[in-house]
Amino acid sequence: MITAGCDVGSLTAKAVILNDDAIVASEVMRAYASPEKSAREVMERALSKAGMRFDDIECCVGTGYGRKHISFVKSVESEIACHARAAFYLVPGVRTVVDIGGQDAKAIKIDGNGNVARYVYNDKCASGTGRFLEIIAEALEVSLDDLGTISMQAKEFLTLSNQCVVFAETEIISLVNEGKEIPDIVAALHRAVANRAASLARSIGVEKEVVMTGGVANNAGMFSALQGALGVEIKQVSEPQIAGALGAALIARDSLVAV
């Protein structure tokens, strides 16, 4: 049984192909302005890895920011449902999922059967999101992918008083002008984002096991900062960035099994 999931976000597009419940291929790429173009290309790349064609897919589910613009999916699902489904697949004992995406942050509570019990998300402000990290990385003239490694070199504990992206960027530039070290500033940035996400999670109650999904989970400094902000151990999963697409593929598989 070949199923697939396609997650088109604001910054990246992801695709996962399953053979029954085993992942046979996945792909992540920078998203284009067109969600349809992003979806088709990322799926073609994943299919090429798997040695398959579009016709081999029995069911494909779409999710993410651009899900309504993917023409080749059978149905679409919310990111909440997809990240919850993936987290339960990866860590069957999971009860809390925190996803820091490009444009929003989400916290999800899962019951013992893997169903979404409660959720909350923030998409009104860029602070606390991957976009916030990207903006500050540009301001500091460092690579987004290097933020985690850089933050691990921090020695001085700094705090950011501004939550607004515009004012936080100004504050960070001021810290640079004061001679503060880049690693210390980046670590402070991670704690600021983590505190926003942790506050979101606490609003619905944090229960173990906790899993962090989304591309930001690949940032070791951010992962560590969120652990500190929540005060609990977070279970590390492989390839957290494909969680949305994986969940969509699993939901596609579930729909065929149920028939």
Report on the architecture of this protein:
This protein is globular. It has helices at residues 35-50, 79-90, 130-140, 147-151, 165-177, 182-202, 220-230, 243-258; strands at 2-8, 12-19, 22-30, 59-63, 75-76, 96-100, 105-110, 116-122, 210-213, 234-235. Helix 2 (79-90) packs across helix 8, helix 3 (130-140) packs parallel to helix 5 (165-177) and helix 3 packs antiparallel against helix 6 (182-202). It is of the alpha/beta class and 259 residues long. A hairpin with a 3-residue loop joins strand 1 and strand 2 (12-19). The protein folds into two domains: 1-91 and 238-259, ATPase, nucleotide binding domain (Nucleotidyltransferase, domain 5), CATH 3.30.420; 93-236, Nucleotidyltransferase, domain 5 (2-Layer Sandwich), CATH 3.30.420. The protein has a five-stranded mixed beta sheet with strand order 3-2-1-4-5. Strands 8-7-6-9-10 form a five-stranded mixed beta sheet, with helices on both faces. It is 41% helix and 21% strand.
**Unreliable runs, pLDDT <50, ≥5 residues?**
none
Radius of gyration based on Cα positions: 18 Å
Helix amount: 40-55%
The overall pLDDT, averaged over residues, is 92
The general outline is globular
Strand content: 15-25%
CATH topology of the largest domain, which one?
A: Nucleotidyltransferase, domain 5
Largest sheet: 5 strands, mixed
CATH class label of the largest domain: Alpha Beta
Number of helices: 8
**Which H/E pattern describes the elements?**
EEEHEEHEEEHHHHEHEH
Structural class: alpha/beta
Query: What oligomerization state is this entry in?
Result: single chain
Strand order of the largest sheet: 3-2-1-4-5
Number of domains: 2
CATH superfamily of the largest domain: ATPase, nucleotide binding domain
The N- and C-terminal alpha carbons lie at a distance of 13 Å
Number of strands: 10
CATH-derived architecture of the largest domain:
2-Layer Sandwich
